[in-house]
Amino acid sequence: MKEALKRIPGLRMAVRLLKGQSARDARDYLFDRMPKGSVCAEIGVHKGQCSRRIMGQVKPRLLHLIDPWEHKEPPYNKPVPNYCPEWCELGENGQLIMDARYEAVKKLFAREITAGRVVMHRGYSNEVVGDFDNGYFDWIYLDSNPLYDVIKQDLELYYPKVKAGGFIAGDNYAMEGWWHNEAQKAVDEFVAKGAGLTLEVREHQFMIKKPL
Ligand SMILES: C[S@@+](CC[C@H](N)C(=O)[O-])C[C@H]1O[C@@H](n2cnc3c(N)ncnc32)[C@H](O)[C@@H]1O
Predict the structure, then answer these.
(1) Does the Cβ of 49 fall within 6 Å of ligand 1?
(2) Average pLDDT, stretch 137-149?
(3) How far, in Å, from the CA of 61 to the mean position of ligand 1?
(4) Helix pair 49-58, 26-33: axis angle to 10 deg
(5) CA distance 212 to 209
(6) Residue-range domains of the chain with CATH
(7) Mean pLDDT for the stretch of residues 194-212
């Protein structure tokens, strides 16, 4: 039934409008700019919702999915009262829940994994960075832990992995939350330091272009 509904033209857009989202949001804008048939990575995958979107919209030749799917308790994420991201503070079965989410993502991409179009890397971004050569990626999307130290580290570790003319992009820019807009601070500092880097921001999405 759900599958049949998905095939009705315009229904997806109508649902998004009903939910108060613009028909094409900032992520669509960003993914529209990423090269079709590219080699890319998403850092911070969780349930794979955004990864599906990347597959559908960008149609990459190869998508690497990087996430430890590890349950964490505060104060790891410095949560403010009454708020904690969906991927921590899940209670005593937290790791079982994260294991199940990892398995669900594996299932979601089973066809693409078999076809060699998706590779999953279960680990923190700094642990798996050695899996990739310098200049390997056309673009990378950062959407893991939006704290300053994590974004700064990912920009520094993964920027060399992107080819000249490629992009390192991500979410959580100019966004207030338990992370106190630390993503913007890390991105702005990184762009200010790098020669010839250009930054484009659309709502909370950022795109840093590496010069040719
Ligand atoms: C906001 S969720 C990702 C949501 C996903 N991008 C989407 O929009 O569907 C954040 C994820 O980042 C992961 N994560 C946290 N720190 C990480 C790190 N250093 N490297 C890779 N993944 C990390 C968490 O396990 C969690 O699954």
Answers:
(1) yes
(2) 93
(3) 22
(4) 50
(5) 9
(6) 24-209 (3.40.50.150)
(7) 95
